[in-house]
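Listing S7. Sequence submitted for prediction.
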Amino acid sequence: MAGTIISGVIFGLVALVMFGIGISQLKSKDPVGFYTGEKPPEKERLSDVNAWNKKHGTMWVIYGVCLVCSWICSAFIGDSSYSGIPLVVGVLAPIVIMVIRHHILVKKYVLTE
């Protein structure tokens, strides 16, 4: 039971960070970046800065929701050998989907010269 509470607090804190990233990107007037080391595209190179920011911010908010949902699923499974599966899927699968979605958004919104 203590492990479930501790993991819930950790997943909750990480989800709050993801929500914070998402909300800050949703409110940003300047183009946002996706990767830590990636520089965001310049305003002039984007066809729609607001849509770019909205879609990237929404991805981060949804990722926070996925983290919370994966922890809840794991908590309902309890202390079995299968309780880690929702956690791994809930953490890794959305990242892969977000990277693919980011590359789709680059093709859609970044203007080529």
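Caption to Listing S7: primary sequence and predicted structure tokens for the chain studied. The chain has a mean pLDDT of 91. Residues 2-109 form one domain.
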